[in-house]
Amino acid sequence: MYRNLLVPIDGSTLSEYSVPFAIEIARRARGRVHLLRALPESILTDIPVSLQASSRKLAQTHLEKLAAAYSTPDVPVTTDLRVGFPVEEILRASPKFDLVVMTTQGAGAISRWVLGSVTDKVIRMAPKPVLAIHPRPKATRAQAEATALRMFRDVCVPLDGSALSEKAIKELGQFEDGEATVHLVRVVARDAGTDALEMARDSLLDAASPVQARGVRVKSIVKQADNVAGAIADAAQKAGCGVIVMVTHGEGGPSRWLLGGVTDKVVRVGPLPVLVIRAGRPLWKDGKRPLTARR
């Protein structure tokens, strides 16, 4: 279960939209949340030395106020302010946590955190799962908390028939409760024949068995489409899902499910949160990606 959660923020309300999601996950797991903010060195070096200390103090004060607003006896919230490149600081911190929770957009007109930048790189490089959340501008805390609750009601798990893609099923325990429904989705080509459709349905029945054995409701969806990512997002939204759970790659090599492929596109399409699980992370020594591979 995800008990120790890392939430990177950049001081903007958009990046802080992820906090209620982390709090809800931690509350159910009796865990804790750790807020991390990294101040890029370039920001500090661009201002007079006399103001650098005050900038750090303002950032630290903001972190502490945010932590105080969300911390409860059941879910303690701690903070960490660092100076350095956000991606590298997040990656350095992530091995100590079970899950990274962050939004796909943060501060800036053309955000530093827009996919293709910080969040995108963390998803690609972090040794732990990443829950990527599309922030809703001007959303209130109550609205964010209500959206977070939906993750535990209906969960979408896209599968491609491979053992690796079905690894996502093993991560469902965190989201299963007495009211949860798991929606298994398989997308086949628009011109797929009867045999291919039947094989897809059979594969979903097989995948559903261990989930149903845990007493969880399962619904299977087979869609015909050439745009796999779009079909997955559409199926999840129509089913009223609150989260999509995917691995970073599935069948084939170099696989149509590699980041930059289907999983990447589903994260980008939105608007649902996507839990991204790296299928290859057990191959890293001590669960850590080599530093040379991060740059």
CATH architecture of the largest domain: 3-Layer(aba) Sandwich
Radius of gyration: 20 Å
Helix content: 25-40%
Note the main sheet. Answer: 10 strands, mixed
Q: Which key phrases capture this entry?
A:
alpha/beta; 10-stranded mixed beta sheet; Rossmann fold; disordered C terminus; 21% strand; 2 domains; 295 residues; 11 helices
Quick structural overview:
Helices cover 37% and strands 21% of the residues. With 295 residues, the chain is α/β, with parallel strands linked by helices.
Structure description:
This protein has 295 residues and is of the alpha/beta class. It folds into two domains: 4-146, Rossmann fold; 153-260, Rossmann fold (3-Layer(aba) Sandwich), CATH 3.40.50.620. Helices cover 37% and strands 21% of the residues. The protein has eleven helices and ten strands. It has helices spanning 13-16, 19-29, 41-45, 49-70, 86-93, 118-125, 141-149, 194-212, 228-238, 262-269, 291-294; strands spanning 4-9, 32-39, 77-83, 99-103, 130-133, 154-159, 181-188, 217-224, 243-247, 274-277. It has a ten-stranded mixed beta sheet with strand order 3-2-1-4-5-10-9-6-7-8, with helices on both faces. Strand 4 (99-103), helix 6 (118-125) and strand 5 form a beta-alpha-beta unit. The longest helix has 22 residues, at 49-70. The chain is elongated and about 70 Å long. The model is unreliable at 250-260 and 281-295 (pLDDT under 50).
